[in-house]
């Protein structure tokens, strides 16, 4: 597990090393290459407010993150819990599951059924970001320089499988895709200068795309029997 805190403050050399480990699951130091353990997970944070002393992230690196989750201020009860935890001694950490358990869960995700219509729907969402005019959204064309890559629908479907498993299902629903669509696609859109000037965000664009792309109708009886 690797946590890259404020990743946009890392210089190009560090980002290059991170790109290698995320893509090839190995790290090269000098003339020696070291494989990373399995499973391997990278999480990164960015401060969206303070930009002084930061470096732009390469699109190729950003595209390798499965999800980009926006975190705002906590709700009152959540913040109360955060403060209360700081007022007492930190509890002793306990192991929640073994490495073998985690690897078994990862394999189980691939057993979660995804209807072909839902896979097609995920691809259609990504396609609509590349050619919005063909999907009845010509007004978005001037705001998108590059749409989501094929990693977008792959990440969307795979994360929807994991969400379904967490919720106790062995099949994916359209609601799972809807819930994760912006998280899986927002960081894969490259916006134009016009979008930045008019303060049109990736989420605004994705809201329009999700509303425009027809949602498939799934036979739940067939899904649960699959």
Characterise the protein shown here.
It is a single chain. The protein is mainly alpha-helical. The protein has a domain at 97-225: Magnesium chelatase subunit I, C-Terminal domain (Helicase, Ruva Protein, domain 3), CATH 1.10.8. It contains ten helices and six strands, in the order E-H-E-E-E-H-H-H-H-E-H-H-E-H-H-H. The strands form three sheets. Strands 1-4 form a two-stranded parallel sheet. The chain has a two-stranded antiparallel ribbon with strand order 2-3. Strand 2 (26-29) and strand 3 (32-35) form a beta hairpin. Helix 5 (116-130) runs parallel beside helix 7 (174-185).
Find the count of extended strands (DSSP E, 2+ residues). 6
SSE order in H/E notation? EHEEEHHHHEHHEHHH
Please outline the major beta sheet.
Answer: 2 strands, parallel
CATH topology of the domain at 97-225: Helicase, Ruva Protein, domain 3
Name of the CATH class of the domain at 97-225: Mainly Alpha
Look at the helices and sheets and give the structural class. Answer: mainly alpha
Helix count, DSSP H or I runs of 4 or more residues: 10
Q: CATH homologous superfamily of the domain at 97-225, by name?
A: Magnesium chelatase subunit I, C-Terminal domain
Order of strands, widest sheet: 1-4
> Architecture of the domain at 97-225 in CATH?
Orthogonal Bundle
Strand content: 5-15%
The helicity comes to 40-55%
Measured distance between first and last alpha carbons: 34 Å
Query: Shape from CA axes?
Result: globular
Unreliably modeled segments: none
């Amino acid at each position: 597990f690797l946590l890259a805190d404020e990743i946009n403050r890392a210089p190009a050399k560090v980002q290059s090393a991170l790109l290698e480990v995320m893509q090839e699951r190995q790290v090269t130091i000098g003339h020696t290459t070291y494989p990373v353990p399995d499973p391997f997970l990278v999480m990164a944070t960015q401060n969206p407010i303070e930009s002084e002393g930061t470096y732009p992230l390469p699109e190729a690196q950003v595209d390798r993150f499965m999800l980009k989750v926006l975190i705002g201020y906590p709700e009152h009860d959540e913040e109360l819990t955060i403060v209360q935890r700081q007022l007492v001694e930190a509890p002793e950490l306990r192991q929640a599951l073994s490495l073998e358990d985690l690897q078994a869960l990862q394999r189980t995700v691939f057993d979660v059924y995804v209807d072909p219509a839902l896979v097609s729907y995920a691809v259609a969402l990504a396609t609509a970001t590349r050619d919005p005019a063909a999907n009845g959204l010509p007004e978005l064309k001037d705001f998108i320089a590059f749409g989501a890559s094929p990693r977008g629908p792959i990440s969307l479907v795979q994360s929807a499988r994991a969400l379904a498993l967490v919720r106790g299902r062995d099949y994916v629903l359209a609601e799972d895709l809807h819930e994760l669509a912006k998280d899986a696609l927002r960081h894969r859109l490259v916006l134009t200068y016009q979008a930045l000037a008019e303060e049109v965000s990736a989420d605004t664009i994705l809201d329009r795309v999700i509303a425009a792309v027809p949602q498939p109708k799934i036979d739940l009886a067939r899904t649960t029997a699959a």
